[in-house]
Amino acid sequence: VQLQAFGGGLVQAGGSLRLSCAVSGRTFHSTAMGWFRQAPGKEREFVATTRSGNEYYANFAKGRFTISRDNAKNTVTLQMNSLKPEDTATYFCAAGTRTILSTLRQGTAYDYWGQGTLVTVSS
């Protein structure tokens, strides 16, 4: 499985961005497809994931971000609205074939990672 993330850029606070992740290789309905982010000098953190038709979000993402998955196109998108300067980070998409409910938010549970795409939110 290979992942390629794109769609990052510079946006003003309050604006929106749509990140996409192109997935090549075989994935299954039960494969967790998620987004994580890492800001400079900070640890990587969970943003959102989808698995078996369900979506899970970090608290900071609820109500502002939406993850969606198109199995026909093999893409996973992250729609980000009402962006804040603290959302500035490199965003990574990831695929996890062995995740369980309790590990969905853990980066170590994901097997495959795409290169990051930088999101910069100016104040």
Give a written overview of the molecule:
The protein has 123 residues and is mainly beta. 0% of the residues lie in helices and 51% in strands. It has no helices and eleven strands. Strands 2, 4, 5, 6, 9, 10 and 11 form a seven-stranded mixed β-sheet that branches. The protein has a four-stranded antiparallel β-sheet with strand order 1-3-8-7, with no helix packed on it. A hairpin with a 4-residue loop joins strand 7 and strand 8. The chain is globular. The model has no long low-confidence stretch (mean pLDDT 95).
Give the strand content: over 45%
Radius of gyration in whole Å, from Cα? 13 Å
Series of H and E elements: EEEEEEEEEEE
Fraction in helix: under 10%
Report the span from N to C terminus: 37 Å
**What's the total number of strands?**
11
Structural class: mainly beta
The largest sheet is: 7 strands, mixed
**Mean pLDDT, rounded to whole units?**
95
